[in-house]
Amino acid sequence: MSKFPVDKIRNFCIIAHIDHGKSTLADRLLEMTGAIAKTEKNRQVLDKLQVERERGITVKAQTASLFYSHDGQEYLLNLIDTPGHVDFSYEVSRSLSACQGVLLIVDANQGIQAQTVANFYLAFEAQLTIIPVINKIDLKNADPEQVESQIEKTFDIPREECVRISAKLGTNVETVLRAVVERIPPPAGSVGDPFKALVFDSNFDHYRGVVANIAVFGGQVKKGDKIVSAYLCKTYEVNELGLLRPEEHPTQKLFAGQVGYIVAGMKDVKEAQIGDTLYHHEQPVEALPGFTPAKPMVFAGMYPVDQSEYPALRSAIERLTLNDSSVTVQRDSSLALGAGWRLGFLGLLHMEVFNQRLEQEYNASVVVTAPTVPFKAVLSSAKLIKGRRAVQKNMVYIDDQRVMMKYLFPLNEIVVDFYDVLKSMSSGYASFDYENAGYQAADLRKMDILLNGQPVEELTTIVHRDRAYSSGKAMCERLKESIPRQMFEIAIQAAIGSKVIARETIKAYRKNVLAKCYGGDITRKMKLLKKQAEGKKKMRRIGNVDVPKDAFISVLKRKDK
Amino acid sequence: MINHISRAARPGFSPGLRRLSDLRASEHVPESPASPRLTEQASLYVHWPYCLRRCTYCNFNKYIPKENNDDVMTKCLQTEAETLLQLSQVSCVTSVFFGGGTPSLAPPSTIAKILETVSKQANLSDEAEVTLEVNPTPVAMSKLKDYRHAGVSRFSIGVQSLQDEDLRSLGRDHSALEALQTLGEARRLCPGGVSVDIMFGRPGQTTESWRRELSEMLRVCDDHVSLYQLTLERGTGLFKQVHCGQVTMPSEEMTAEMYQCARETLQQHGFQQYEVSNFAKNNSESRHNVSYWKGEQYIGVGPGAHGRFVPLGEGGVAREARTQTLEPDVWIREVQQRGHGTRRRIRLGHLELLEEVLVMGMRMTKGINHKHWEGFSPELSLHEIFGASPVVQELLHSGHLILDDRGLRCSWDGLALLDSILPVLLVEMDKQIFPKAAS
């Protein structure tokens, strides 16, 4: 089973814009090659995470090895499913490095979208064979002709190369398999070469340690072999290896051209660096070009709801980031919320998914504070160049119905809800991709929040001058809603320097006493009072104002959609 | 039998005499919660759960009966009273209060029978205050005399409002005139022993209309007034009406004003405010209710009734918070089966008991005096608990709280903000009594 000549192996990915049908096609391919039984229930088998199932998205790329007979020959097809969302393009480029070709899926109704383009460029830059697959031809509004034109115009791929399918119904999927065999070249490298493998993904298993997904570029490896990680120069012994079908299928050996997994006594997922090269300790090879680490675009503060939960949250974050090395983690602390972290994500969805996984898989309850974009503050000079809103860079017509526009934005402007607003304004048709264009100077101010004249250090923020009023007003309003009334008036102010820019007032109680408290009422009243007393213990006293922790949280956390 | 007749034979005893004896009885000697003095006596609360209708604001334990259950209910109330009195082993019942529901729906014989049962188990003095809550309909009015004969010495009339439209929208089943007539009859039967309940903060009320209503009330009422702010309780008809926007409650500003206005007006008319909502002249304070606020034992009989006493009869040594089963039918079955329908019993720890004493005691304008506190907390005085705290100091400086050689109490202003003050006091007390736990 594990002896397949390299020329009978094909390594390929499925890439596409979100919801164009990658995972459905993956299901069909798995069914057709017998990896999973043909049943109704095989809906997106490869999406294993609960959060993936709930949101109907792929978060983590999964891999499967398939067997396919073509013209009387047995072929080994290694399929890697990838996420379609803009945030996860990093996962996509990793997977591509292990492949020689891709199936680029385009929805016959929607046509080329932002991620279609983004993924195409990734594959193109990696010099992979690209097979365009037009999916969902079964739908009423499908227009494969139009889409083929688009593809020709945008990607310069002849329309004859497009394969029209319906992944849902299985229509013409056989053609896809044939195309994979016929058009995608086998991997280079031979079994005779020294062992060389690329680590393109890894998982952490509590019992076995790190499980690395590897693409074998040359030679062979078996259980018991001593292998070396080029990045760390550490030696490991192979405990277990095998294929992914998509579940693990342990085997004795892996050969050149194959894709599979390996367990080699690595305890920390940092030991299986994505992009690392593995080789036999007696036969060192030239390391493969590694990956540049993904650059986080969006930051969020994450704090435990109560400091007593800090250790539990720390352990949950550690475990979750074991399997998601694109999250950057930095310890941080807030005066209001205590010790926590500043996490960097590839995008908003990435952050939300991470959060959801924290709650679902690790039962952690987290306060997420508004994302802050990295600032480089010039501390010595107070003079800053005037900030810009978006500046248009160029505009290209894809076809007679679509236009692609490029803008330069301050990251702060898009990082919270730009994507959402864009989607809703364009009824979902507009799509969006971004890349970091570096730092630009902007007009920023330090805004203080005061309660009855006392500054609340924890709530000091840096805002753009143009945003100061709305931001200050919003903070004051949130505070007004979350600070309970007291026996005197509370003045909430947002100020820049000595200038008050926004203000809210909480009126004093004039009467706060239960009307009736007789023998039958005392039990209920005590319960209520005890609860208030407990709450009071946890409050922070700022001047003469008692502020509950919730108030800080409500001001600092992200606004709900 | 004899007891019952002798009570009835003295309807016209001099109010002055009665008050004097009451005063003597209320002067306490320092004692501990399980001390003989405190566990020797208790007041008795009896709950009559039935009503004819539902008032839109009421969330008490009340039921509209499908058939006449009076006989069974009466019998069960007697049984449970007997059982619980025996359990408490009190030798003296200091006061009895018939609440509900609508106790004035019960036949007067019910009152007589229960009082008789009580007398058999403990000493029920002729001077003991026996209160009956009255819903002032013509039917109730016609029964007042019989209630008096049965042993009632104090009537608490639920007038609520003198505006007929308001009475209607509150779901009451009497008119203002009927209420005033009932009030008059009650005063005739129990001079100096009648209280009226009135409500402010009603939908549509203004401070002006309230002031006028109060003046009218003060012209005709007796020596005791209870005034309550109408509060919205979840699950009531009024709550739903407000939620749907059918009805609007007056603003907080206005109700606060109404309360202050009432306090001032009553004071001007010679009434002494002795508790958050209760005003009396001529020493007509409700002995029964004061015993709640003073942390004395009480036994609750009837569906949903609450009690606080030491079950000495079972060998108990600590005070328990007890609740009787809420639902009348279920309660009846339980009483028939085992003599009482106690649903919950929770032992009160030292701190919990002190917390209750504090919370209840601070509702009185006189607050908690040192001797009273010492009875419950011989180890730690009020000064020791509250004297050093900076937050309490703030309250003393702002004039909301007073801590002196008499004791701890709220000022005039502080009383209106009691529920803002109590959590602060509870936190302090927690710290002092369990210094390790509180850190």
UniProtKB/TrEMBL annotation, chain A:
Molecular function GO terms recorded: GTP binding; GTPase activity; mitochondrial ribosome binding
Residues the entry annotates as binding GTP: 16-23, 81-85, 135-138
Keywords: GTP-binding, Hydrolase, Membrane, Mitochondrion, Mitochondrion inner membrane, Nucleotide-binding, Protein biosynthesis
Annotated GO CC locations: mitochondrial inner membrane; mitochondrial matrix
Protein biosynthesis keyword on record: yes
Cross-referenced CDD domains: EF4_II, EF4_III, LepA, lepA_C
NCBIfam families: lepA (TIGR01393), small_GTP (TIGR00231)
Protein name, per record: GTP binding elongation factor GUF1
Organism of provenance: Fundulus heteroclitus
